[in-house]
């Protein structure tokens, strides 16, 4: 005889108390969903996740102390089983790609209705990914619009660095790059760090944008 299904355990992170508490109340009222914690900034979010190890974190992006992108990166590194759904006002392509590169498996705009948010949480909890039709289409358009001519781009990079950047720009994770090139994950991390330094960009998302503009990642 099997017992009842365990509820989906969710943490809500947003620096606006009205939105955070309202969303937590809304989600908590849904059968099969349990809100196990909330946080008002990214640093607090990392601690709450470490304490409760939820199934899904609903994460705002623009927050004090530590932004949602960096918080997502830390959470997905420390607790890979936790799915992150980024819920934000921003439709900026850079934010979308930064969230994806940080490990978010869902990206919704704050205008999303209750059903859409719940569907995203459920999908991410079961290992899927949700980026909303409009955002998914923009991601596809962004990749389709990249110009050709990668062989002339970034002469400061070594052949290996260009090879790694090409795979990163194609959306591969460090682990996937390592497997594709028969390198250790540590070596890939080091190469990516060198690429960021040589391109003089602050993060992986900016490197991807630069690479895509130059025709890499096709």
From TrEMBL:
Protein's GO biological process: phosphorelay signal transduction system; regulation of DNA-templated transcription
Domain named HTH luxR-type: residues: 150-215
Entry-linked PROSITE patterns: HTH_LUXR_1, HTH_LUXR_2, RESPONSE_REGULATORY
Response regulatory domain: residues covered: 9-125
Modification type 4-aspartylphosphate: residues: 60
Sorted UniProt keywords: DNA-binding, Phosphoprotein, Transcription, Transcription regulation
One of the record's GO molecular function terms: DNA binding
CDD domains attached to this UniProt entry: LuxR_C_like, REC_NarL-like
Top-level taxon of origin: Bacteria
PANTHER family: TRANSCRIPTIONAL REGULATORY PROTEIN NARL-RELATED (PTHR43214:SF24), TWO-COMPONENT RESPONSE REGULATOR (PTHR43214)
Annotated protein name in UniProt: Two component transcriptional regulator, LuxR family
Organism: Geodermatophilus nigrescens
């Amino acid at each position: 005889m099997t017992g009842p299904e365990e509820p989906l355990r969710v943490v809500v992170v947003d620096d606006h108390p009205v939105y955070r508490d309202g969303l937590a109340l809304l989600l908590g009222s849904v059968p099969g969903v349990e809100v196990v914690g909330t946080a008002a900034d990214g640093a607090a979010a990392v601690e709450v996740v470490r304490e409760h190890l939820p199934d899904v974190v609903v994460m705002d992006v623009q927050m004090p102390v530590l932004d949602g992108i960096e918080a997502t990166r830390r959470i997905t590194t420390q607790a890979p089983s936790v799915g992150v759904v980024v819920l934000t006002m921003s439709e900026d392509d850079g934010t979308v790609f930064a969230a994806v590169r940080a490990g978010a498996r869902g990206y919704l705009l704050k205008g999303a209705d209750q059903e859409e948010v719940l569907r995203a949480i459920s999908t991410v909890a079961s290992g899927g990914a949700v980026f909303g039709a409009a955002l998914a289409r923009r991601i596809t358009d962004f990749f389709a619009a990249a110009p050709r001519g990668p062989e002339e781009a970034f002469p400061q990079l070594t052949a290996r660095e260009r090879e790694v950047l090409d795979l990163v720009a194609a959306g591969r994770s460090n682990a996937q790059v390592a497997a594709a090139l028969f390198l250790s994950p540590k070596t890939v991390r080091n190469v990516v760090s060198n690429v960021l330094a040589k391109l003089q960009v602050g993060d992986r998302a900016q490197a991807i944008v630069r690479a895509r503009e130059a025709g890499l990642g096709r």
